[in-house]
Amino acid sequence: MTIVILCMLTASALNSHLTLSGLTFRQATEADQKFLLALYATTRQDLQQLQLPPALTEHLITMQFQAKCSGYRQQFPKACSLIIEHANRGIGRILLDTTNTNIRLIDIALLPDHRRQGYGRACIRALQDFAIQRNKPVQLSVHQDNIAAHTLYLALGFSPIQSTPPSLSLCWLPTGTGGL
Predict the structure, then answer these.
(1) Distance, first Cα to last Cα, the chain
(2) Mode of pairing for the β-strands spanning 103-110 and 138-143
């Protein structure tokens, strides 16, 4: 099965589990690259605070974005990149890799104006329902300094399974018991 078909099926399956009105997933396309770069830029406050000339900051963010995308393609060649939409407008992205043994939440990001409004929680809950149907755990890694993400994942039943600074690996089991 091609990646395109797999991603379309994954988006459709996740959509069936969304409970927040107006929220949907769709497969990311080449036409979304500008949006994905802008979204990525909102996650790189570290680079924006360097007080460099704006053109240089933009260049660094673009290079980091391209390197991150390339790294993800190499490490997770079958991953599905999905755009998170609310009221038919892109508000974020989720990157998933489904294997025979688990579902890996590689990356999730929302535009700043859409954070802390329940959209991330709704997306993760839909992913958990998707995992229950497949009887697969959901695994992810989060930066140890990202307290908001830690709080959300722990509230949704994820348990720490490994700490390799600067990241913390978490797991959620379809039985709801957490870690492996």
Answers:
(1) 29
(2) parallel
Beta strands at 23-27 and 103-110: parallel, antiparallel or unpaired: unpaired
Tokens 């018991």, located at residue: 177
| Full-model pTM | 0.92
Return the SS3 of 26: strand
Residue 145, CA distances (Å) to 77, 109, 120, 150 in order: 28, 15, 18, 9
Question: Tokens 């809950």 — which residue?
Answer: 125
Measuring CA to CA, which residue among 81, 140, 149 is closest to residue 115? 149
Residues 12-58: tens digit of each pLDDT: 999 999 999 999 999 999 999 999 999 999 999 888 888 899 999 99
